[in-house]
Amino acid sequence: MRYSIQMRSLVLIAHNLRSTHNVGSLLRTAEGLGVEHVYLTGYTPYPLQASETRLPHHAQKIDAAIHKTALGAEQSQAWTYVADITPVLERLSTEGYTLAGLEQTAQSIPLPSYHPPDRIAIVLGREVEGIEPELLQQLSVHLEIPMFGRKESYNVVQAAAMALYHCRFSPM
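RE: above sequence
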């Protein structure tokens, strides 16, 4: 079943993630929520690509691990690996995207209170430490998912799913 909704332009940036399983799950989640493009940056693992520069056995092992959770979304979801995140942020900003970091900071806005713009790029950071402070300074908004239990944060994929879902289905 396909839903008829007003489409906001969503981009996802996964910066310095370590887990291939998280990458695969992010690609699958992004594909399901109609994300326009996923950028895998820094040391984030990425699937096989046409202009492969990694050692073949290493690239194939990473690709297989990503496929385990992506279940083919690595083929249907548009994605790009870019080592340096800065040009990606600069280009998206020039194209009118709001750069939003999913991170708990003193300036963060609770996700349920946030009214997303027509074009938004959500930046995710490291699984344990989150987004680096230098990178946070380059982002125009910080979003936080309120926690009600004893834990301080969600898994990066679950957090991304909540943020993407909120941005996809919030009224325009």
